[in-house]
């Protein structure tokens, strides 16, 4: 997922990465958006879908502008 996942997490106010553990192994990593929330809620799904819809609209508007003005 990479960049899209990170941008959506930031847009939703969520933290990605940071310290975590896999079984007995502790990982000390840098957190992306460290001031964000650690856990997503069911309401974040609705917010993510709304954000997805808005970004899609902006994308299509940009495509239309490029087609109209011939860039």
Give a concise summary:
By secondary structure, this protein is of the alpha+beta class. The chain contains two helices and four strands.
Key structural traits:
71 residues; alpha+beta; single chain
Structural summary, described in words:
With 71 residues, the chain is of the alpha+beta class. It has two helices and four strands. The protein has a two-stranded antiparallel ribbon. Strand 2 and strand 3 form a beta hairpin. The protein is elongated and about 55 Å long. The two termini are 29 Å apart.
The structural class is alpha+beta
**Over the alpha carbons, how many angstroms does the gyration radius reach?**
17 Å
The neighbouring-strand order within the major sheet is 1-4
Average predicted local confidence, pLDDT: 91
Q: Helical stretch count?
A: 2
Beta strand count: 4
N- to C-terminal distance: 29 Å
Unreliable stretches covering 5 or more consecutive residues: none
Query: Beta-strand level of the residues, as a percent range?
Result: 5-15%
Helix-strand pattern, N to C?
Answer: HEEEEH
Percent of residues in helices = 40-55%
Silhouette: elongated
Mind describing the biggest β-sheet?
Answer: 2 strands, antiparallel
């Amino acid at each position: 997922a990479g960049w899209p996942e990170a941008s959506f997490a930031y847009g939703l106010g969520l933290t990605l990465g940071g310290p975590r553990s896999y079984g007995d192994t502790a990982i000390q990593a840098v957190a992306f958006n460290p001031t964000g929330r650690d856990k997503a809620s069911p309401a974040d799904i609705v917010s993510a879908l709304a954000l997805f819809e808005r970004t899609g609209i902006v994308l299509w508007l940009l495509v239309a502008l490029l087609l109209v003005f011939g860039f």
